[in-house]
């Protein structure tokens, strides 16, 4: 796994970000990305601990990407935050490399010693690794502009095909059939992202407008494949169908440590329907730094219990 760390450092569009690469027996099992501010706000472990446990992670490597020039003072400030992060490492998890990276250079932090200084070490960019990161687990790991672009609607010709397919759906389709279509599409993507056809996208987007189906999908947000399923479906959604799938994409992304993607998806949901209650609720939760574990314990589990009641 250590060979991947210098390569990720060569991706120059990462800025003001914190990337965590978790491994099990040397193999990557989880890549999470959040705003660098999570480091100073002491929110890193809160946001990813459950995902790390679920992935069976044994070791986690941390790479900080500050915005702007990396001066000795910047490194000193980051080092203090990274030392605190190391002190709070969850039990059973080993902290691996702790690195600052920027503009193709890196600085290795010894969290038991003093801060690094100087010009750092040049690292080599590898396009294949950059590409792999962009599609890792179906979630873009590119610049914020690229992430926003990944959630935007597809060209009008494709949206028109999806709209036509929605119009062609039976007007009297039962909720049970809608639920079946959504679950089938989700299950098909359990192992890897798959392209959407206009007809499949149409049936799922229409199914998600049923609040009971949408809420059931919210409760599945812990499943990693929901992240790439909803985030790749979102660009296919005509305007009236955006809010449910965008909100689901945000829930699943946030539950797996991808807070930047979560906010991008929420912005799309609220742009399409500023009064959509579930999107407004999740945005408020993010604004007050409610952790994924808080959402899981206080919202998802109680809701699941109520759904299971006769």
Automatic annotation (TrEMBL):
<protein>
    <submittedName>
        <fullName>DUF4192 domain-containing protein</fullName>
    </submittedName>
</protein>
<dbReference type="InterPro" id="IPR025447">
    <property type="entry name" value="DUF4192"/>
</dbReference>
<dbReference type="Pfam" id="PF13830">
    <property type="entry name" value="DUF4192"/>
</dbReference>
């Amino acid at each position: 796994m250590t060979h991947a760390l210098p390569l990720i450092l060569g991706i120059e569009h990462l800025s003001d970000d914190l990337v965590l690469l978790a491994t099990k027996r040397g193999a990557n099992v989880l890549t999470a990305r959040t705003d660098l501010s999570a480091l100073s706000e002491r929110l890193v472990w809160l946001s990813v601990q459950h995902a790390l446990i679920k992935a069976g992670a044994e070791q986690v490597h941390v790479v900080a990407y500050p915005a702007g020039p990396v001066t000795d003072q910047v490194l000193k400030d980051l080092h203090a935050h990274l030392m605190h992060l190391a002190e709070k490492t969850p039990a059973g998890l080993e902290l691996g490399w702790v690195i600052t990276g920027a503009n193709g250079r890196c600085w290795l932090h010894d969290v038991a010693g003093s801060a690094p200084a100087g010009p750092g070490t040049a690292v080599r960019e590898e396009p294949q690794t950059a590409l792999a990161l962009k599609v890792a687990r179906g979630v873009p790991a590119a610049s914020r502009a690229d992430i926003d672009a990944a959630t935007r609607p597809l060209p009008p010709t494709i949206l028109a095909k999806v709209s036509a397919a929605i119009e062609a759906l039976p007007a009297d389709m039962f909720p049970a059939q809608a639920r079946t279509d959504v679950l089938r599409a989700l299950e098909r993507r359990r192992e890897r992202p798959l392209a959407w056809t206009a007809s499949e996208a149409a049936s799922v987007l229409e199914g998600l407008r049923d609040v009971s189906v949408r809420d059931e999908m919210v409760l599945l947000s812990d499943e990693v494949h929901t992240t790439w399923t909803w985030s790749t479906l979102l660009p296919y959604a005509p305007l009236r169908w955006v809010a449910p799938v965008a909100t689901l994409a945000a829930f699943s992304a946030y539950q797996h440590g991808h807070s930047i993607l979560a906010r991008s998806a929420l912005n799309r949901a609220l742009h399409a329907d500023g009064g959509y209650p579930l999107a407004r609720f999740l945005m408020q939760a993010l604004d007050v730094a409610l952790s994924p574990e808080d959402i899981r314990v206080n919202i998802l589990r109680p809701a699941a219990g109520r759904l299971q009641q006769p």
